[in-house]
Amino acid sequence: MGLDFTVVPGFMDIILLGALWTVAITVASAVLSFFGGIFFAVIALYTHWTVRLPFKAFEWLFMGTPLLLQLFLIYFGLVQIGIDLPAFVAGVVGLGLHFAVYNSELIQTAIIAVDKGQMEAARTLGLSRGEALRKVVIPQAVRDVIPPIGNNMIALLKDSALVSVIGVSELTLSAQRVIGKTYRPFEFYLVAAAVYYVINLCMEWVQRRIERRIALSR
Amino acid sequence: MDVDLMMRVYPFFLKAAWVTIQLSILTTILGLACGALGAAARLSRFAFLRFLGAAYVSVIRGTPALIQLFILYFGGPQIGIQLDAFEAGVIGLGVNIGAYMTETIRGSIIAIDKGQREAARTLGLSKVQAFRKVTLPQAFRLMIRPLGVNINALIKGTALVAAISVVELTYTAQRYIGSTYKPFEMFLLSGVLYMIIIYGTGRVITWLDRKARIV
């Protein structure tokens, strides 16, 4: 069986609809992982050890196991305890938590690197500890850490293909459905790869623009 | 928590962990080979080879590993490449991680100060000798830790071959979740085994890195 790309245009609508879902999942998980990352970093640095140690264990577990396994746990595990999440939500929660842990590592380092004088000055000006963190320390830390977080978000786009295995109809699963009808795996996986590549190039372009703006604002 | 069930099924997880270890080792070897070739191409004198190297890195890093595996395993027969799932897994993951290792190896080589090479040339070494005896040994030292990061990602990446039904840890966990409806127990069993493999490998990398240090 040779290659035949003439069948591709007829199914492009399904593929592109899948691509839209991939973008939606990526954006939703990216937002969750960003704020989750900040939240986790604050827990890791500023809470009592009774909160911090269990959290560290959770972090350790998430960094030491594959994302695919975590997705299975979240999707099937929540059903077991009576929470029946739609696949899309389970996928976003899984991807978001996984990358929040990685973002948190970056943000923790950046928070530690923010000069101690900043916190002290904010406290002297009458801000509470929480306010000083929220309005002075974290914004500076986040600015420093935007470029590596951008890399994580590009990794997130590619890992979003994994949610196809729990049945989210994004780009990969759409390609699989089309292949089920046409029996042309090579052509349609190649098309899907090309669409991912284009989305990836767009993200890299946005990332470069943001980095340039940060560089200017210093 | 159903400890009885865990005691009953854990031998299957051990067997699956061994498959994951085999996958990881073979993929690391292939990845290092691809990475070395890729780095050589990207640092080559010839513009065409540089372009090939850059295209390899950009395309592989710009698309999901899962899709790459599917193209190889499901699409391969259409262009005359017939592989079983394990072979497709090793080749797909190895070529994939090779693109990341290309950048690691290249980065370590260009991080070595130009003065080192110039000094070696002044002392009468040929270009090749200067590279082999002066630049490369120093670059090796630099690349151990970042290659360790690549290998860590690779071990977790081996879970993807569950999607082409290689019976490794994630596939086994998935199958037992399906037949026992005990996701937490199965996650715990496979998660502990993954962590032993990953953090164990991490210790080896740290040890190698410390051994290779001069100061």
TrEMBL record, chain A:
Sorted UniProt keywords: Amino-acid transport, Cell membrane, Membrane, Transmembrane, Transmembrane helix, Transport
GO terms for biological process, alphabetical: amino acid transport
Gene3D superfamilies hit by this protein: MetI-like
Xref: PROSITE patterns: ABC_TM1
Gene Ontology, cellular component aspect: ATP-binding cassette (ABC) transporter complex
UniProt topology in membrane: Multi-pass membrane protein
Localization: Cell inner membrane; Cell membrane
Pfam families: BPD_transp_1 (PF00528)
Domain ABC transmembrane type-1 intervals: 19-207
GO molecular function, one term: transmembrane transporter activity
Superkingdom: Bacteria
Transmembrane annotation, as ranges: 20-46, 58-79, 85-102, 186-206
Main location: membrane
SUPFAM superfamilies in the cross-refs: MetI-like
Similarity remark: Belongs to the binding-protein-dependent transport system permease family. HisMQ subfamily.
UniProt-listed NCBIfam families: HEQRo_perm_3TM (TIGR01726)
Name listed for the protein in its UniProt record: ABC transporter permease subunit
UniProtKB/TrEMBL annotation, chain B:
Coiled coil location: none
Single GO molecular function: transmembrane transporter activity
Keywords: Amino-acid transport, Cell membrane, Membrane, Transmembrane, Transmembrane helix, Transport
Span of domain ABC transmembrane type-1: 17-205
CDD domains tied to this protein: TM_PBP2
Keyword Transmembrane in annotation: yes
Main localization, broad class: membrane
GO biological process terms on file: amino acid transport
Transmembrane domains' residue ranges: 12-39, 51-73, 147-167, 187-208
Keyword check for Ubl conjugation: no
PROSITE patterns recorded: ABC_TM1
Annotated membrane topology: Multi-pass membrane protein
Pfam family, one: BPD_transp_1
Top-level taxon of origin: Bacteria
Compartments, as annotated in UniProt: Cell inner membrane; Cell membrane
GO cellular component, one term: ATP-binding cassette (ABC) transporter complex
Family matches, as InterPro entries: AA_ABC_transptr_permease_3TM, ArtM/GltK/GlnP/TcyL/YhdX-like, MetI-like, MetI-like_sf
Family: Belongs to the binding-protein-dependent transport system permease family. HisMQ subfamily.
NCBIfam families: HEQRo_perm_3TM (TIGR01726)
Descriptive protein name: ABC transporter permease subunit
